[in-house]
Amino acid sequence: MSEPGDSRRNSIELIGAKAGTAMPAEMRQALHLRGLVPTSIENFSKQELRAFQQLKSKSTNLEKYEFLATLRVLNVNLFFRLVLNHFRDIVPLIYTPTIGEACLSYSHIYPFLYPFRTSVGLFITLDDADCIDTVIENYRRSMPEPIDPEITVITDGSRILGLGDLGINGMAIPIGKLQLYSAAAGLNPGRTLPIVLDFGTNNEQYLNDPLYLGTRERRPDDKR
């Protein structure tokens, strides 16, 4: 059940994710944001300049990956503007080669990449098989707009790049691929759906890692 003010907060989050500091004055007034955000109303080019400067200030490619992942959640329009206008610089950060490092570290950096109120895709376990409709409905309810995906990329994390069995950490691959598809083919990023089939891992490193976020058991046999 919605609480009082939910619709207002949802509107602020939705519009903010698309406009940010470029939100016009009349929209700020209508959303009761007067005094809550900086006064300057910027154009999208200025937003892009600031974002690119912040990106370049990061000292490692993994830090740049983390910055871009957070930016995509906070302001999806700005993220893709940055990708399209700096394609050669950013593709190696959101996919190969940096995506390999991101996969290896995924369980350790995941909580700092995306706000927990934001769904980045589906994490499906064997226990979810009997209630998959509920999982899908949960995803729909989490989306800011009531639209269904047009494309998905699915992995079980068993063979990631040349790195082998990474379990749930392989989720970074579907996310990265769909970002590239959206940027290069003009797909609506809101209609893409990354999925990881979290059926366990045979990688001892992750089975013994206290911070591993996936199912902490070996993969099922083919019959199961």
Keywords:
mainly alpha, single chain, disordered N terminus, 10 helices, 224 residues
If you had to describe this structure to a student in words, what would you say it looks like?
It is a single chain. It is built from 10 helices and 3 strands. Helices cover 48% and strands 6% of the residues. It has helices at residues 6-19, 25-30, 44-57, 61-74, 76-85, 87-94, 98-109, 132-142, 172-185, 204-207, and strands spanning 122-124, 151-155, 192-197. It has a 3-stranded parallel β-sheet with strand order 1-3-2. Helix 9 links the parallel strand 2 (151-155) and strand 3. It has 224 residues and is mainly alpha-helical.
Helix content: 40-55%
Shape: globular
Question: What is the residue-mean pLDDT, rounded to a whole number?
Answer: 88
Q: Give me the Rg, rounded.
A: 19 Å
Output the helix-strand order: HHHHHHHEHEHEH
Beta-strand share of residues? 5-15%
